[in-house]
Structures are given as structure tokens and as C-alpha cells.
Specification:
This protein is an alpha+beta fold and 211 residues long. It contains eight helices and six strands.
Length: 211
């Protein structure tokens, strides 16, 4: 452990919630799931450590932070830096990186597996009731970090005999995001549904396009 992490740990203290979770979870067990979700070949630039991005993803989920606010928090919060393993002088993942990483895990079905593994390990320490009978379903609107494009960029080609077809509409650089209008405001993004047990602990998250 270098000087920054030692000083940060001393300032935060062992009573910090994130510090306790960090000590409880067996992080290497998440690596095979993350590798499967990303499908990296191991050749060429590898980018951020998937485990670091997963830790960032957990903080964003637990603290209710959208990607831009998560990026900012990772720059200034010592407890967040320590939990994610980000050195004081290390680059911080931007909102696009968080978005692409999360989408990759959701599309491959690994996101649920990752959260299930978190719950399983916490349960093994007696910190969460198993087989909870009560559940609350809620939905939160998550705005895409990608800049939207609202115009039609191209027309799909069609074979002879086909109908006129639909225009090729490019919503944004985030292909999974969709528009939704609530009141007078239109938002490009997703809906995140969180299921909690009777203690209020999240045990499952499901994400869909906003529409």
C-alpha cells in the first residue's frame, strides 16, 4: 500500500461503511464474471481494470449518482478513491467509460450475476436476510451520458418490392438509449428498476430503454 492509500485509510477510519464492505468482499471472485461480460481478447490496449470500473459502478448504484456526478465524486472523495483503488494522481474514468462498461455487463446478462455475487457474499457474513418475502419495485430515470442527436441522418436502403421502410434514426452515440417525455421535459436514457427486500436492501436491478 503506497503513501496515499495509507493516509487516506487513516483519515477515513475503519468505521467507514465502504471500508467495511471492501474488507468483507472477496474481489477476485468477480473477475471471471467481468471478463466474460467484456469479452476482451487480451490483445492491444486494455484500458481500465474491470474490477476498478465495477467498484465505481457499485458506488454509483449505492449512492444514486449519475455518471457525470460519479466522475466528479471519484475525483474529490477520499473514501470513494480508496474503495475503487484510484490513486490521487491516477486518471479517473469519465462518464462515457462508466456508461459503456455498464451497458456491456447488462447486455451480456453479467450485471445480474455480479450483483447476485455481492449479495451472496454479504449474506455469508450474516448481513442480509435470505429468502425475503417482501419486495418493493421502483423505477428511476437514468439520463444517458452520450450527447443526443435528434435529426434523421440516413434513409435505409430497401430491396425491390419492399415497403417504404423506416428512416435510419441515430438517437445518439449510446445506441441503447431512447427518448421519454415526462411533463414538459424530454430525456434520452434508461429506466432502472430496483427491487428491495423487507429491510430495504437492493437485491436486483433491471434496466430498460427509457421508452
Amino acid at each position: 500500500m503506497d503513501l496515499f492509500f495509507r493516509e487516506a485509510a487513516d483519515r477515513i477510519g475503519e468505521d467507514d461503511v465502504l471500508f467495511k464492505i471492501d474488507m468483507l468482499l472477496e474481489w477476485p471472485t468477480f473477475s471471471p464474471i467481468l471478463k466474460r461480460g467484456l469479452g476482451r481478447s487480451g490483445v492491444g490496449p486494455q484500458g481500465y481494470d474491470p474490477l476498478v470500473l465495477f467498484r465505481c459502478l457499485l458506488i454509483g448504484q449505492w449512492r444514486g449518482l449519475r455518471d457525470p456526478k460519479l466522475k466528479r465524486a471519484l475525483k474529490v472523495r477520499l473514501d470513494f478513491m480508496l474503495f475503487c483503488g484510484l490513486d490521487l494522481h491516477a486518471p479517473v474514468p469519465d462518464e462515457t467509460t462508466h456508461c459503456l462498461f455498464r451497458n456491456a455487463q447488462v447486455e451480456g446478462g453479467e450485471y445480474d450475476d455480479l450483483l447476485a455475487e455481492v449479495c451472496r457474499q454479504i449474506e455469508n457474513h450474516g448481513l442480509k436476510l435470505k429468502k425475503a418475502e417482501a419486495a418493493i419495485i421502483d423505477a428511476a430515470l437514468v439520463e444517458s451520458a452520450a450527447r443526443p442527436r435528434t435529426h434523421i441522418e440516413a434513409q435505409k436502403d430497401r430491396a425491390e418490392g419492399e415497403g417504404p421502410g423506416d428512416p435510419d434514426v441515430h438517437f445518439s452515440a449510446d445506441p441503447g438509449a431512447r427518448w421519454i417525455k415526462k411533463g414538459s421535459k424530454s430525456t434520452l436514457g434508461y429506466k432502472a428498476f430496483a427491487r428491495t427486500d423487507e429491510e430495504g436492501l437492493i437485491d436486483k436491478v433491471h434496466t430498460t430503454p427509457a421508452n
